[in-house]
Amino acid sequence: MPTVSVIVRAKDEAPAIGRTLDLLAAQRLEQGWEREVVVVDSGSSDGTPDIARRHGARVVEIPASSFTFGGALNTGCEAASGELIVALSAHAFPRDEGWLGAMVGAMADAEVACANGQDYDVDGGAMTAPRTQDLALAQRNPYWGYSNAAGIFRAALWREHRFREDMPGTEDKEWAWHWLQRGHVVRIDPALNVEHSHAKDPLPEIYERSRREWRGYAMFLELPRYGLRALLREWWTDRASWRSHARARLSHRRAARLLGKYAGLRGVATG
Predict the structure, then answer these.
(1) How far apart are CA 190 and CA 127, in angstroms?
(2) CA distance linking residue 176 with residue 190, whole number of Å
(3) What share of the chain has pLDDT > 90, as a percent?
(4) Domains in the chain, ordered, with CATH?
């Protein structure tokens, strides 16, 4: 029978992982499909692996010192048997019982390398309809697209090109970029969204996530130089999704993201 494997990366996720695994167990799949759940735990000290085992998941434990996002996912893929693989953060919650089936359905076209949901369209507006991202669209905005927070991809393609383990972040964007350059496409559909937010994260975590992401982008994209002048110009002129420039300039969270971007790109050889 065809199998979809769900790989959950976790560390100290005791408050969330039980809910995530319960939601996965409730998912409906078309007749004939099997599912399996693999939890890759990177050194939890709060009982996360035990909770996962009680929920019937296969648990693979790795040392915290060896963790990278790509490395943990590769470890999970090695343990998985499915031809389709779902990457899911331990604190990302499917919104209904049809989510996993919709993920599988998004891969019906053989040209689709991977698929996921997004809240915002490529132009920054709210996403209301599915979109197919090809290489031309990705080249216009390479920062928008596939995410391993809650995404599905083909195991056969992963075996040809594994997730990069040397990247501090954006291993998902690099993987999708690789296959976009070879004629595949990415399916983005708001129906595949999950409940997953970092909106309340502390400022140091926002800064560090931004730093990792931009350092990762610089490892596979040719980016314009981003020095202090570019940082100040973006902070002053680009209000992004904020209602006014004043609100954007006064946002501590936005400032943390911009400072993380500056730190991530500082000293990196860009275009």
Answers:
(1) 6
(2) 18
(3) 84
(4) 3-195 (3.90.550.10), 203-265 (no CATH)
Q: Under DSSP, is residue 239 helix (H, G, I), strand (E, B) or coil? A: coil
H or E stretch at 18: helix 14-25
Task: Give the residue among 266, 204, 212 at the shortest CA–CA distance from 67.
Answer: 212
Give the DSSP H/E element, type plus range, for residue 150.
strand 150-154
Q: Indicate left, alpha or beta for 47 from its phi (over 0: left) and psi (-120 to 50: alpha).
A: left
123-140 pLDDT tens trace: 888 899 999 999 999 999
Distances (CA, A) of 218 to 19, 182, 209: 36, 20, 14
Q: What CA–CA distance (Å, rounded) separates 115 from 266?
A: 32
pTM score, whole prediction: 0.92
